[in-house]
Amino acid sequence: VSLVSKDSSMLDGLEDASIEMDEAKARLHEIIISNAKAKNTNGSVEFPWMVDGAGLPPNASELLPKMATLTKQVTAQVKLLAEGEDEKLALTSSFSRYDQAKALGKTTIDAARIAAGLPCGSESFLLMFARWKKLERDLYNERKDRFDITQIPDVYDSCKYDLVHNAHLNLKGLEELYKVAQLLADGVIPNEYGINPKQKLKIGSKIARRLMGKVLIDLRNTREEAICVADPKFTEDEALFLPTKEVEHQQKIQVRNEDGRRSSTTSEKSMDQEDEDDRETKYRLDPKYANVKTPDRHVRTRLYFTSESHIHSLMNVLRYCNLDESLHGEDSLVCQSTLDRLHRTRELDYMSNIVLRMFENTEVPLEDEKRFRIEMTFSRGADLSPLEDKTSETSSLLQEHTLPIMGPERLQEVGSCLTLDKFEKMVRPFAMPPEDFPPATPQALGYFSKGAGVLERLASFWPFHKGAANGKITEKAANCQK
Questions:
Q1: From CA 443, how far away is CA 461, in angstroms rounded?
Q2: Statement to judge: residues 203 and 100 lie in one domain
Q3: Same domain, 153 and 301
Q4: Which of 62-66, 326-330, 423-427 has the lowest mean pLDDT?
Q5: Residue 279 burial by Cβ neighbours in a 10 Å radius (0-12, 13-18, 19+)
Q6: Which of 415, 455, 355, 399 is nearest to 164 (CA)?
Q7: Which residues are registered as beta bridge partners of 480?
């Protein structure tokens, strides 16, 4: 709890990429409406994800009118239910008309509401109708005879929500609308962040620039902390990436376990116990909340809870960073088999995540680049169709109005070795440099607190690409969750 840091600026970046995203959406609209197929999308293409508009269904122009018609049909049904809502509530006096606070506080499904034929959770029929009416109106402008393809993801999400939570309402055409919306959304959503890999990389580096910079700083902090532990002679001046207070505290901890790692006990106490306790609060688990065997150990895990746009952007930088001119000739950080799988996995649903794990091989010399390596995995989150076979294991989950979280999938080949140095080199041009971050605050773990002197040494120690566009940088070892 004491280590939680709220930084809303980490969610910034969309406005920086607004021009490129508008260009991508305009090109996407052109491909769909003109019934143009993505270039070279026949079966002989070796890398199908490299073409413009990859993933769009070939009959997208026919699916759009069908989607608008089905949306209108579902909206009309919900309207009739909304008109009869007062009668249902009158017959079922135990229900209030709309109690959002009460509904959001529940941890179980309200079976009584469902049995009474009312919407699940906090939504009334009136609000449900307003939701669908807005989708109907925004998707297709009858007066201008124009479709807004940016509404496709919203229609898809609304269908999925109602199939999971309001299947008992038996809305005719909802399942068919979901199938149509899914086909279109699978093509539209990934292409909103770039119509081809190079544009995806450009947009991704602008949206996730700050997040990636913080990730890289924390990776380097962790590495330097490990080096301090492995080599007691390692001085404060050498630990360029450690915050001042953490470096000072680290040098007081010289006791190690049998495997050479730091133990949970300290060999000496600060003269100023109050200051020492304050540092522990900032850099260590609070034993009042940490249900672990060694609550006073330093925290090496970072969890970033972010948005869908940042997850897409982060993933695009990871898989396409090698396309940058400054990295010409380098292979992608993501292996070919995973690139193909990601091409076919277009939705990043709730709880989707990217995990970067850093490992230290203590048998390797400190100066060897193989001492630290990175392992990357990702999960699509709750990416399961509510129309899955009802006889499967997912049947019980759907009855509970929940969807399972997909397990982690590797982004690299088994047995491959991605060193931290190689990782930094590949993603450094696309992230915010450390010197551009604001001054340290008590809760901002990993931010620098030593002033210009450290930043000058840092710049010389960590040479940035002078020719990199927009002055970008890299990523981190942790869990980025949507």
A1: 26
A2: no
A3: no
A4: 326-330
A5: middle
A6: 399
A7: 304, 354
60: pLDDT strictly greater than 60:
yes
Would you say residue 118 lies in a domain?
A: yes
Same-domain pairing of 318 and 171: no
d(Cα 151, Cα 138) in Å, to the nearest integer? Answer: 7
Q: Strand 140-141 relative to strand 418-419: parallel, antiparallel, unpaired? A: unpaired
CA distance 383 to 156: 13
For 129, counting Cβ atoms within 10 Å of its Cβ (0-12 exposed, 13-18 middle, 19+ buried), the class is buried
Q: How far apart are CA 203 and CA 216, in angstroms?
A: 19
71 and 218 fall within a common domain: no
Q: What ranges make up the beta strands (E) of 58-194?
A: 140-141, 146-147
Range of the domain at 58: 52-191
Residue 240: inside a domain: no
In the numeric block, the tokens 């307003």 are attached to 130
For 10, the token pair is: 């980490």
Q: 154-190, pLDDT tens digit by residue?
A: 999 999 999 999 999 999 999 999 999 999 999 999 9
Q: Are strands 353-360 and 479-481 parallel, antiparallel or unpaired?
A: antiparallel
Give the model confidence (pLDDT) of 450-480 as tens digits.
334 434 433 444 433 333 333 332 333 334 4
Same domain, 121 and 213: no
Looking at the 3D structure of the chain, how many domains does it have?
2
Torsion, Cα 132 133 134 138, to 10 degrees, reads 110
Residue 403 has pLDDT above 90, yes or no: no
